[in-house]
C-alpha cells in the first residue's frame, strides 16, 4: 500500500501517539513550546512524558495552528511525522543562538518545519522526503506562501538521533535553498510560487478534522 500524507487531526491523533511510543520519543512534540531550561526539559521528558503527550493533544483539540503538522501513514501503519507550523508559533526556534541575529523577514505566511520523526522500520525508505515534498499543498491550503527549514549541516552523515531537524542535502533535494545563516546551521526556504502567481490555494487539500503541532523527536529518514 502506498504511503499517504495527511494533516494531523483528532481522528488520526492515536496514530501520532503510537509513532512517538514506538520511537521511544518522550518529547511528544513539546520541545519548541517548553519554556523551562534544558535540565527542566530533560527531567520532564524522563519523569513526565505523558504530560508532554497530554499537552500536545490538548493543543490539537483547541485547533491552535501551533499544533499543525503532517502524518505519513501506510494504511493503518504509522510511518512518520513532520511538525509544520507558522513561524510565529515557534518563537523558541528563532531564539536559538544560530538564528537569533538573523533577518528572515516578516513571519506572516511563513511555515517552519520544526522536526521530523520516522518509524524505525521505515527509515531509509524516503518517508522524510515524502513528508517534506507534501508540505507545499498543505501550506497553500492554510494560506501560507513559504516553507522554512532549519537543518543540520555537519559535513558528515548524521546519526538518526542528530537528524531530527533534517539535513541540508535532504532539503536541497526537495527544492529548498539557503537564505540565511552559516554552516552548520543554515536556514533554507522554499517559496511557493503557485501562491504568489495565482493567489489561490488548492481547495482539495483540507486538514483531517482539526490540524495540529510537535516537539523534539529524533530519527529521520
Tell me about this structure.
Helix content is 30%, strand content 19%. The chain is α+β, with helices and mostly antiparallel strands. The chain has one domain: Aminopeptidase. It has a seven-stranded mixed β-sheet, with helices on both faces. The radius of gyration is 16 Å and the shape is globular.
Query: What's the architecture, going by CATH?
Result: 3-Layer(aba) Sandwich
Biggest sheet: strands side by side, in what order? 1-2-3-4-5-7-6
- Helix count, DSSP H or I runs of 4 or more residues: 7
CATH class: Alpha Beta
Share of helix, binned: 25-40%
Please render the helix and strand layout as text:
Blueprint lengths: L3 E4 L5 H11 L14 H10 L1 H14 L6 E6 L2 E10 L4 H5 L14 E9 L8 H15 L4 E4 L18 H6 L3 E4 L6 E5 L1 H6 L23
Parallel strand pairs: 4-5
Antiparallel strand pairs: 1-2, 2-3, 3-4, 5-7, 6-7
